[in-house]
Amino acid sequence: MTRNIILRDHVRAGILDVAATVLAERGTSVSMTDIAQAAGVARATLYRYFPNRDALLYALYEAALSDLTRRLNDARLDSVPIEEAVARMTRATIAATGRYRALGLFEKAPREARRMERQLAAPLRAVFERGAASGAFRRDMPVHTLAELYFSLLEGVVSRVIRHRLSVEEASAYATTLFLSGALAAPPAPPPTATSTATSAGSTTASSTAVPGAVPGAVPSAGSPSSG
């Protein structure tokens, strides 16, 4: 009995793996027959595991969210500086969602999948809130705006990963650099050095002893008061 369950789970996982690839490559035009053929199983076998298209999509949502949840947990976002947290969060999200990008093409997701997405958003939102609270992120932009811009950026980058124009590593590096270059707060101005202070003081002294109306560096004429 246990062996049959293991075999069944293996077949189911294999079908989902193929379905994710086919949907990512071809989009919503893919039929259940196309998926069965790509997976190398009969249509009857496919329908035995997934009674309809909605059931298959729901299973793919679960797989995608489980994969991303695992990656984010492994990333330990709350234990590293904010810049590193953004880098890890970006790579985990691109690696997971790139695999299941086709799911975003469907307007109506199962209600349960939407609920899981909201739960998954918690660790991501925590990164933005920590960045704002610590002063690492700029203060003139609300946290929710930063988050929206971040995920809009990721959406565009992931589409290039799907089309094999960027690798996951390249896309992650580009997205992280672009986001942080606009999101991080400007560093404070450096304190004045001893040299700059002395130079400033010297300039002030020279200005205070200058002859009123004289042109700096000009040689006094013979008839000027200083020549007598």
Automatic annotation (TrEMBL):
This is TetR family transcriptional regulator. It comes from Actinomadura hallensis. Residues 9-68 form the HTH tetR-type domain. Residues 31-50 bind DNA. Residues 194-228 have a biased composition (Low complexity). Keywords: DNA-binding, Transcription, Transcription regulation. PANTHER family: HTH-TYPE TRANSCRIPTIONAL REGULATOR BETI, HTH-TYPE TRANSCRIPTIONAL REGULATOR RUTR. GO terms for molecular function: DNA-binding transcription factor activity; transcription cis-regulatory region binding. Pfam families: TetR_N. PROSITE patterns: HTH_TETR_2 (PS50977). It comes from the Bacteria.
